[in-house]
Design brief:
Blueprint (H helix, E strand, L loop, with lengths): L1 H9 L5 H22 L4 E4 L12 E5 L7 E8 L2 E2 L12 E5 L2 E13 L2 E4 L4 E7 L4 E7 L3 H7 L6 E6 L5 E3 L5
Parallel strand pairs: 1-5, 2-9
Antiparallel strand pairs: 2-5, 3-4, 3-6, 6-7, 6-8, 9-10, 10-11
Length: 176
């Protein structure tokens, strides 16, 4: 009898309550991590002066689509650099609020790969007339994905800016 008690003391005892507790903790942590990836878009006012109501502004969006490995990175608007912190380099949605009027957006793209991130080697520009209350998205188009992989983003790529509400497209500037 004495030997059985000693053997039992040496073996770690895990009962069903502890296992259920560990499973509960793991599922809560997983839920919190998943929710952290799906937070509301970050938004920045990219104009000077007093804060304007949202209906008086145009919104330039960079959407985070986890199924799409490429995303635009906004480098400058109207010649004013956009800091890397807000340029769209992470996997959350980004909204830049602009005053209505003509704007020139310079952007590149970021490619998420298994070994890290790869950036486009040159930027593109699109000039568009922003309308208050409308939102705009940049769409990247890489024609030959295999060529992209082997030439490390050292080839021509296309993009367009789309006015979400109307579907109106703004194409790359002629000097690209």
């Amino acid at each position: 009898m004495k030997r059985n008690i000693q053997d039992q003391c040496r073996k770690p005892q895990v009962n069903g309550g502890q296992i259920r507790f560990l499973i509960c903790i793991c599922s809560v942590l997983t839920t919190l991590l998943a929710c952290g990836c799906a937070v509301a878009p970050r938004h920045y006012d990219f104009y000077s002066g007093a804060t304007q109501p949202l209906q008086d502004l145009a919104v330039l969006r960079v959407k985070a689509d986890l199924k799409e490995p490429r995303r635009p990175i906004i480098r400058a608007i109207d010649g004013n650099p956009v800091s890397n912190r807000i340029a769209g380099q992470d996997r959350s949605d980004l909204e830049l609020r602009l005053l209505p009027g003509r704007h020139k957006v310079r952007f590149g793209y970021l490619q998420f790969t298994l070994v890290g991130m790869m950036y486009s080697r040159f930027d593109q520009t699109i000039t568009f007339d922003a309308v208050a209350g409308r939102s705009y998205e940049i769409h990247i188009d890489i024609n030959d994905y295999k060529e992209h992989l082997f030439k490390a983003a050292d080839f021509k790529w296309n993009a367009k800016l789309v006015e979400v509400e109307t579907g109106k497209e703004f194409l790359l500037d002629a000097d690209n």
